[in-house]
Amino acid sequence: QVQLVESGGGLVQAGGSLRLSCAASTRTFSTYVMGWFRQAPGKEREFVAASGISGKTDYADSVKGRFTISRDNAKNTMILQMNNLKPEDTAVYHCAAGYVDAWYRKEYRYWGQGTQVTVSS
């Protein structure tokens, strides 16, 4: 069982930056694939970025070059640095943890409660 808590959401203007954090309760954080998803009102949840084992990262095309995912295994923390934010980035952002299949199939086992990101134009 993994408990995940996101933080760092807020309101920013287009072009601004925001840093999201995800704190995990597990003692085996380094063994998990970690990811970020987002869901806007009335829309389906979509993949944003993933952090695998050994520093591998993956990004949705819509955020590539603007967002950076990272993790600090010693602190059981995952970070999503979001730069050059656009109104289209407005959504509830959820962090997630999974096993190796999460990396290849985007199937995650555990989910956080989400944090709201609002980008104004």
Architecture overview:
- The chain has one helix at 100-105; strands at residues 4-7, 10-13, 18-24, 33-39, 46-51, 57-59, 67-72, 77-82, 91-98, 110-111, 115-120.
- It is mainly β and 121 residues long.
- The strands form two sheets. Strands 2, 4, 5, 6, 9, 10 and 11 form a seven-stranded mixed beta sheet that branches. A four-stranded antiparallel beta sheet has the order 1-3-8-7, with no helix packed on it.
The radius of gyration computed from the alpha-carbon positions, rounded to a whole number of angstroms, is 13 Å
Low-confidence stretches: none
General shape: globular
Which oligomeric state applies? single chain
Mean pLDDT: 96
β-strand number: 11
- Taken as a percent bin, the fraction of beta residues is over 45%
Keywords:
mainly beta; 11 strands; single chain; 121 residues; four-stranded antiparallel β-sheet
